[in-house]
Amino acid sequence: MPKKVKIDPDKCIGCGVCASVAPSIFVLNTDEGKSNIVEQYRTENQYVGEIPDEMESEARTAADSCPTQAITIE
Hints:
By secondary structure, the protein is of the alpha+beta class. It is 20% helix and 32% strand. The strands form two sheets. Strands 4-5-1-6 form a four-stranded antiparallel beta sheet, covered by helices on one side. The radius of gyration is 11 Å and the shape is globular.
């Protein structure tokens, strides 16, 4: 079952750690200064997406590395 990944734009400081740890899931949007879900996995908007189960570990590493805890995985 796919995992839902969310970035809280109010918490995101645009440091880019998630994009460097998990570039297949996260991308830094330099125009807004926030991280986004890569287009391939977006569902509702640029901050919400669904990833395959096999990418969960990569997403959790990025979430754990986020200095503001802006990433959640359901």
